[in-house]
Amino acid sequence: MVLMMQKRFLPLYIALITLYIFIGIWVFTIKEGKLPFVDQWTGKYVESFADTAFYDLFWSVTHLGSESFLIPFTVLVAIILWILCKDWLVALFFSGGTLLSHLLNMFIKNMVARERPSISVEANAEGFSYPSGHSMITMVCYGLLMYFLVRTIKNKKIGILVQIGFALLIFLIGTSRYIIHVHFATDIITGFTLGFSLLILFIYLFEKIDGKRRIGKSQS
Predict the structure, then answer these.
(1) Is residue 200 domain-resident?
(2) What are residue 131's phi and psi, to 5 degrees?
(3) What range defines the domain where residue 56 resides?
(4) pTM for the structure as a whole
(5) Average pLDDT, the chain
(6) How many CB atoms neighbour CB 85 within 10 A?
């Protein structure tokens, strides 16, 4: 069974390993004071989005990943999940996972110390650039919310729609940072990659702990 699971997720493992190799190359390039090829190639398209309806749409979406929105959102949703799931561990993993992803994001940003392509206080785009907090933290925050909601949904079709909806939301929030030109493309790709890795880790740890709790209750 374990072997079958490993084969099933093999393409995902290969994709993540490949991305982490690129991330290592990008960090080395950035620390050398150079611009990674991906940013050189994608940077020329950013100006074409300015003053368009496309830009305005992503400007609105980007605020769903801002610190001023996520802090009260995380606290409120943690309480709702606690009540809905009748489990304090769910609320702890949701809020704790979001907080830890934020702290890790700030740590890496300070270590790499990459300047942004542009600064925007209104878009919560101050400080260092790499990796994108909007793509990394929202991947964990909305990803965990999606996971816990799907666990409570009995209808499979509705569960799939919820997953698609949240995946699209995470993608749009992260991508918005490139569209409004407050992050480089590599900032966003790295943020998504790190956030997804953390999301998998938190879900794995939750299921391990929750499984042991259930075994303990069944034996008592």
Answers:
(1) yes
(2) -90, 170
(3) 51-212
(4) 0.90
(5) 89
(6) 16
